[in-house]
Here is the input.
Amino acid sequence: MLIDSHAHLDSFDDLEAVLARARDENVSTILAIGIGEGPDTMHQALAIAKSHTGAPEIYASVGIHPQEAHQATAEALVDLARIAADPKIVAIGEIGLDYYHLANPDIATQQAAFIAQLRIANELRKPILIHCRTSELARPEAKAKYGDADAWEDLLTLLDEHWPVSNGGIMHCFSGTLDHAERSLAAGFYLSFAGNLTYPKSDDIRTAATYAPLDRILVETDCPFLAPIPYRGQRNEPALVTHTAGLLANLRGLMPEALAELTTANFHRLFPSTMR
Here is the structure.
């Protein structure tokens, strides 16, 4: 049985069919990401988790994505904390920094929203789900906006200042370098690998996936985005996590069943309330 540790289930109009296909592929649990299209809809993942019965088991997160950081008002943060107190909410996220898109808020706004959500997560003793995207590969306009700033360096610095190692969390859709992987692991994080692990040019990601301790790796879809090969360019969904898991198993010299067992155990260790 596999766990999809990061899925945007509120993006699907045909959710019941999507969940049925996940069940057919032995996906036992899904973590539904509660960012919506901004704070006004960040409750949607929780609503799905609470209304769904049967397999797969669904849990949820709640958070304000860095691209909506300008909407992290005092009122929105109070609402986030209220939603996060629900037992079905196992994490705060996805939160972090994104210096890739020109339309994203400025650095100071993103960092303020990130720190505010770290405080909420710390108060509730819930792990965090990290989104980090640098401007290195961005269009020239975005590079001009963010200058020499490095989202990874800023992120790891803020975590060192504001996030206890013991609280932990997930580096979602890990796409950094081996150095970023080492520092993330030292900061208490698990590395979660998505469909881009299977892409031909993802050598750095595969290096990190090979390096990370077996007890600190997870798999995810980030659906409906980042469908793995051979479905790249199509809509992604939880059933397709098997392809990412299969490649990760091959990289680690494991049978797929063994990879599924250990990533499931890792997920439950990080989120003990999901144990059944």
